[in-house]
From TrEMBL:
The chain crosses the membrane at residues 7-29. Residues 336-430 form the M23ase beta-sheet core domain. This is Peptidase M23. InterPro entries: Cell_wall_metabolism_enzyme, Dup_hybrid_motif, M23ase_b-sheet_dom. The lineage of its organism: Bacteria, Pseudomonadati, Campylobacterota, Epsilonproteobacteria, Campylobacterales. Keywords: Membrane, Signal, Transmembrane, Transmembrane helix. The keyword Membrane applies. GO terms for molecular function: metalloendopeptidase activity. It holds the Pfam family Peptidase_M23. The keyword Membrane applies.
Amino acid sequence: MKRKGQASIAALVLGLMFLIGVGGVVYMFTSDTFEREAPQIALAKEIEWNLKEPLKIQVGDTSGISFVEAALFDGEKSVVVDTKEFKEKQQVVDINVSFPKMGLNPNQKVFELTIKAIDQSKWNFFAGNTAEVKAVIKVDTKRPEVNIINNSYKITKGGVATVVFRAYDEAMKSLYIETNFGKKFYPTPFYKEGYYVSFVAWPTVIENFSASIVAVDRAGNISRFNIPYFLQDKKYRTSTIALQDRFLEGKISDLIAEVAPAQSSLSSLEKFKYVNEDMRKGNEEEILKATSNVPVEIIKDFRLKPFYPLRNGQVVASFGDHRFYEYNKQPVSESFHLGLDFASNAQAPMQTSNDGIVVFARENGIYGNNIIIAHGLGVYSLYGHCSSYMVKEGDSVKAGETIAKTGVTGLALGDHLHFGMYVQGVDVRPEEWMDEVWLKESVYSVMDASKKMIER
């Protein structure tokens, strides 16, 4: 009996040990502590590098990174350029690889970069999982070539100018025109490979203007070339408008009820501020999205006829007008008028003066029924307060085609057309695009002369 009891105890102990062993194995294969995935190293197979700016590399692992090492090899010797150890759990780490001051030949054109990483997993007998990735480093210290072929002589505040230039680099990464106010204009390939054309715009709210062509290659080399425009200042009208109760309780309340019923509980002045500031901002953001696209296909030429959107229309409000609104002689709000207002007969037909694609045809708050047409090279025409549409988004339209009729939709008191011109999302003076002399001198002559110089 005693032996049988001892045997039972032994069997029980063995069974418990077996269960513990199985449980331990299951735990090892399912627990995050013993995860078996190697660290992820974000490293391309080939990298261009100018040896100046550090290479930024990201390493990640769910269990955390414990060790990272970066080494450069020039074909003869290897130099460790960065080593980091982490005791705290960090699932993502960034390392900056800088070229060493000693140990490697800076005139070498090709290097091999090796990144080794070990995670904090207890797998592999507590040694963790290891990953090692290599990349070929191609040294490129030459800046992209940039030179201006031709440009408009001047740019007027609120207006537009043209530039044609050549830009070349085998590893070109980005190419744009940078302004002093943060806006980037993107060029379109022009006439022959390696040549580009772009319009730039000077907003009315910016006091000064400068623009530079910026070319950046994949190695991080940057070229900047200032465009030498003569700057012509222009003063725009300022207006003080007294708000009337009839307007606040009529047009403003109606627009709120139609477009923003959730704001119906606001007071009359609060409704006006909402319409003139919040609604206007949202509407202009819609216009910005619709007018920011720039063609990337090469163009051989660019021609537009002067814009005359409303036959026999009279200008009743000017572009760039800075309006200050008052109630009982107390300031309430302000805004800028971003187009020309034309009035003619009620529900007068409006035409597009040039071919284009309808990119926007829908209700847009203060602009009412709103149409926007793309004419190429980042140029767009806008038609607001339409009573009805005769086109839809995606339609191709021809010069002289009737696209809509004037109306009183949106924030329009009387039947009229709000006509605007945009260049890469920036509202610009419609008068320039209605002027045949300006089009010839500032656009066509610049492009025609550029083509002759390119052919030399």
